[in-house]
């Protein structure tokens, strides 16, 4: 059975929050990097992930370097450029959690992040 779901865990290297001119809804993009060690060789894989709506708004609290776990779907977008059909695979984030590595259990665990919002007065 083929699935279009993904789960990724990594550190946030870049984030951008904008608002759609058409709908006014939030659109967020993050660059998530994963470290992959193979003996003495260390490689990094980076993934561009897009969030929409309320989840996109919540990404404004993510700080560069934070460890997060993202659940989402793979989506294909098609458009025409210079008379040619372009097809592009996108990672669309549905949710994310803040995580940390627990030395005692040698496993990652979800944590609650304290968010301090500025009051408007």
General description of the model:
This protein starts with a strand and ends in a 10-residue tail after the last strand. By secondary structure, it is mainly beta. Helix content is 5%, strand content 65%. A five-stranded mixed beta barrel has the order 1-2-3-5-4.
Described by the principal axes of the CA atoms, the overall outline is globular
Mean model confidence by pLDDT: 89
User: What oligomeric state do these chains adopt?
Assistant: single chain
Strand residue percentage: over 45%
CATH class: Mainly Beta
Q: Please give the alpha-carbon distance between the first and last residues.
A: 54 Å
- Count up the helices: 1
Radius of gyration: 17 Å
What series of H and E elements makes up the topology? EEEHEEE
Question: Could you give a short account of the major beta sheet?
Answer: 5 strands, mixed, barrel
CATH architecture descriptor name: Beta Barrel
Please describe the topology of this protein:
Layout: E1 5-19, E2 26-38, E3 41-52, H1 53-58, E4 67-81, E5 84-102, E6 107-111
Parallel strand pairs: 3-5
Antiparallel strand pairs: 1-2, 1-4, 2-3, 4-5, 5-6
């Amino acid at each position: 059975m083929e699935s279009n779901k993904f789960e990724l865990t990594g550190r946030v290297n870049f984030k951008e929050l904008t608002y759609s001119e058409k709908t006014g809804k939030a659109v967020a993009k993050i660059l998530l990097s994963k470290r992959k060690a193979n003996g003495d060789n260390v490689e990094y894989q980076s993934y561009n992930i897009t969030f929409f709506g309320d989840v996109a708004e919540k990404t404004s609290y993510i700080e560069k370097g934070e460890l997060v776990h993202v659940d989402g779907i793979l989506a294909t977008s098609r458009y025409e450029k210079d008379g040619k059909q372009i097809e592009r695979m996108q990672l669309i984030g549905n949710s994310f959690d803040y995580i940390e590595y627990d030395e005692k259990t040698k496993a990652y665990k979800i944590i609650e992040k304290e968010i301090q919002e500025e009051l408007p007065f």
